[in-house]
Amino acid sequence: MASADLRDELTCSICLNIYTDPVTLPCGHSFCRTCIGDVLDTQEASGVYKCPECRAESQERPALVKNRKLRNIAENIRSTHPEQEEAGIPCTYCDSPVPAAKTCLHCEDAACICVYCMAGEHRGHQVETLNEASEKKKEKLRNILQKLTSQREEAEKRVQNLEELRRQVQGNAAGVTERVTALIRDIRKQLEALEKRVLSEISRQEEQVSPPSLRSNPAAGNKEGGAVQEDGNCLTRTGIRQRRLLCGSDLSDLTLRPSWDCDRITRRHRVPEASDMLLDVNTASDMLLDVNTASDMLLDVNTASDMLLDVNTAGRYVSVSEDLKTVSGSGINQGRPETPERFQVYPQVLSSRSFSSGRHYWEVEGSESGEWGVGMTYPSIERRGGQSLIGENNKSWGLEKIYNKVYYMRHDSKLTQLPHSFSCCRFGIFLDYEAGRLSFYELCDPIRHLHTFTAAFTEPLHAGFGVYEDNTWVRI
Predict the structure, then answer these.
(1) Which residues in 319-338 are b (16+ Cβ under 10 Å) and which e?
(2) CB proximity list for 260: less than 8 A, separation 6 or greater
(3) 283 touches 325 (CB < 8 A)
(4) CATH, residue 15
C-alpha cells in the first residue's frame, strides 16, 4: 500500500507516468520537463501561463527549477518497479504512447484525449468519459437495431402476404381455366349438334319442296310444265310459282289434264313458307347468343363466394343454418321479432351483401322436391302483402320451382314457363349491373342458359331466396 501511494506521488499529472527529469514551477507543483514544456509552449500564444494542477497564473513564462531529489527518487522507483504498459485507448495528440483519459464529442476532432490535451489544445471543450461515450454509442446502435428488426419483420409479413396472394391467384386461375375448358367443350358439342340439325332440316325442306315426279322423271316434268304453260287463261306462270311456294301447292298433288281446270287444283300437304324455313336458323342464332353470354360470364367477373344470408330479413317460418349459407322451410315459428326489414307473409330471406356495380356470379342448389325460388331484389321490396313475393313486382326478378321439374321465370307478376325439363337442381346466376342483365344457367352437362332478364337497375340488388313448403331448402 505504501509503495502504491509513493508511486502516485511520483507520477506526473500530465503524462501519468513516473517523473522523467522532473522540474518544479514557482507554485511548487512538479512535472516532467518535456510535459510542462509542451504545455507552456501551447499557452504562449495566449500570453497567460497557468499551472495544469492549481491553475496559478503568470504573465511571464515561469522558470523551471530542476528537482534533483525528486529525480533520484523517481529513478530509484523506476529501477526497482519496472513500469507496466497501461491498457486502453492511446491519446492521439501525445508524442509518447499515453492512454487517453477522456473522449471529445462536441468538437470537430471527435478524438480521444488525455489530461494534458484537456489543458492544452482542447481547453474549454466539452468532454465526457469513455464509458459515457460508449453507452451513448451503444444506445444509438440498439435503436438502429430495433428499427432494422422491425423493418425485417414487416418485410417478412409482406412476403407471406404475397405468397398467400400468389396461391389464391393460382387457385382462381385453375378454377377459371377449368370452367373455360368445360365451356369451350360444351360450345363445341352444341355447335356440332346444331350444324347437324340445321343441315338435316334444310335437306328435309328441300325434299318437301321438290315433287317426287320431277325428281324421278325430269322429262315428264318438262311435259307437264308445258301443259301448265298452255293454260294461261287460268293461271299465269308467276301465279303458279307463287302458289307452289307460298300457298303450299305440291306438284305431285296436281291432276294434269288436256283441259286445265282451276277448280280441280287441290292441296293435300302444305309446303313450308320461307319464314318457316328460317326458323331453325334463328334458333341457332339464339343458341350462339346464349354461348356468347356464357363466355362473357367468365370474363372480368367477381365470384360472390362470401355471400351470406341476412337473418334480420328471414320470415318467421324460415330456418337459417349457422354458417348462413342454407335456408330451409320450417313448419315451426322461429320466434323472431317483427322488424321493418323482415318478410311477414312469405318465407323468404335476402342476402346481407348487395351489388350496385360490376359483374358478379354465384351458384345455388335447391331441393329436388317442394317449391322454392331464387332471384334478385331491390332492398325497397315490400315486406307485407302479396307484392312481397319475389318476382311478383317490378322490384324483383326470380327463378321459381313450382312443381317437380317444372320451373318458371317470374317478374312483375308475369310467369314464363321454361319449356324443357331439368336434369339437376344446381344453378348459376350472373349479374352485369351496368349492362342491366340478370342471367340464369342450369349447371348440368353441358351448361344450359335458361333465361336472361334485362332492366335498367336503379337500386342496389340483394340475392333473394324463398322456401314455400316445409322441408324444402336452398343452399348458396
Answers:
(1) bbeeebebbbbbeeeeebee
(2) 227, 228, 230, 231, 234, 235
(3) no
(4) 3.30.40.10
Give the range of the structural domain holding residue 92, as residue numbers without chain letter: 2-128
**Cell 515561469 maps to which residue?**
62
Of 76, 94, 128, the domain-final residue: 128
243 phi and psi, to 5 degrees? -65, -35
Contact 284, 433 (CB under 8 A): no
DSSP per-residue letters across 197-235: HHHHHHHHHHHHHS-HHHHH-HHHHHHHHHHHHH-TTT-
The answer to whether the CB of 227 falls within 8 A of the CB of 251 is: no
Q: Please answer whether residues 157 and 142 qualify as being in contact, where contact means their C-beta atoms are separated by less than 8 angstroms.
A: no
H-helix or E-strand containing 432? strand 426-432
C-alpha grid cell, residue 61: 513564462
The Cα 342–Cα 310 span in angstroms is: 10
Q: In this structure, what is the dihedral angle of CA atoms 151, 153, 156, 161, given to the nearest 10 degrees?
A: -100
The reply to whether 461 and 365 lie within a common domain is yes
Q: Is the pTM of this model over 0.90?
A: no
d(CA 36, CA 52): 8
What cell numbers appear for 408 in the block? 318458371
Maximum CA extent, the chain? 175
Where among 226, 253, 268 does a domain terminate? 268
How far apart are alpha carbons 341 and 382 in whole angstroms?
9
Alpha carbon distance 435, 359 (integer Å): 9
Counted domains in the chain: 3
Strands 102-104 and 359-366: unpaired
Nearest to 35 by CA among 102, 96, 101: 96
| Phi, psi at 443, each rounded to 5° | -90, 55
**Terminal CA-to-CA distance of the chain, rounded, Å?**
94
Q: What tens-digit pLDDT sequence spans the chain (476 residues)?
A: 456 667 778 888 888 888 889 999 999 899 999 989 888 888 888 888 888 888 888 898 999 999 988 888 888 887 776 654 444 556 666 666 666 665 554 455 566 776 656 666 666 667 777 788 888 899 999 999 999 999 999 999 999 999 999 998 998 888 888 888 888 887 888 788 888 888 887 888 778 776 655 555 555 555 545 544 444 444 333 333 333 333 333 433 333 333 434 443 343 444 444 444 444 444 444 555 455 555 555 555 677 778 999 999 999 999 999 999 999 999 899 999 999 999 999 999 999 999 999 999 999 999 988 899 999 999 999 999 989 999 999 999 999 988 767 889 999 999 999 887 777 889 999 999 999 999 999 988 778 889 999 999 999 999 999 999 998 999 99
